[in-house]
Amino acid sequence: QAVVTQEPSLTVSPGGTVTLTCASSTGPFTDNDWAYWFQQKPGQAPTTLIYDTTKKQSWTPARFSGSILGDKAALTLSGAQPEDEADYYCLVPYRGVFWMFGGGTKLTVL
Amino acid sequence: QVQLQESGPGLVKPSETLSLTCIVSGDSLTDHHWSWIRQPPGQGLEWVGYSSYRESTNYNPSLKSRVTVSLDTSRNQFYLKLTSVSPSDTAVYYCARSGSGSGMRWGQGILVTVSS
After folding, report:
1. Which one, A25, A102, B48, B66, has the greatest CB density within 10 A?
2. Which chain A residues contact residue B99 at CB under 8 A?
3. Which residues, including other chains, have CB under 8 Å from residue A96's CB and lie 6 or more apart?
4. How many CB atoms sit inside 10 A of residue A22's CB?
5. What is the pLDDT along chain B (116 residues), one digit of tens a residue?
6. Contact at CB, A45 and B103, closer than 8 angstroms
7. Is A1 within 8 Å of B107 when comparing Cβ atoms?
């Protein structure tokens, strides 16, 4: 079974920029793949920030963006706010029809 | 806009079957993928499976022998059945809608505890 790797934890200063990445053991992430990014705060259900690698939901703050960085999917937060402190998960496909979540990144804004 | 609400028992005995319902409003089950995702306490998210009216049904290979996801378009609900549960199946179970270029919408989740 595939393994999807995210940074376990990252810290960003208020107003700063940070990039979270998502790498699959099945191979490099390309334009033919898709990725979702989710934000989850304690005690809450996840909310979707990014889908189809780069597209934003209507409620996604403009400071979040999705991209491909090298051979990984990436989520960039530009101008971090205290309310962005949360867990972030990526979701990618493997073998065409199966889905796999990354282990999550705990983002601290400090 | 679409809303999803999970329902079902909060406590299931070991070796029994976990059965959950996701009630969908504001959208039709004939479009999109309809998924179940779970999260054990203090852990990350795990994909359980999805079903699509127009395409296929697929399951997490690690759960495939025990899981069934099915759609009822007449009731606008979809279901999860997980057989032979053990305490390791204790988790918050989420239903979700995705696909057709609309991103993913989540239900609020339901905690299911497996214990005698």
Report:
1. A102
2. none
3. none
4. 28
5. 899 999 999 999 999 999 999 999 999 999 899 999 999 999 999 999 999 988 889 999 999 999 999 999 999 999 999 999 999 999 999 999 998 788 999 999 999 999 99
6. no
7. no
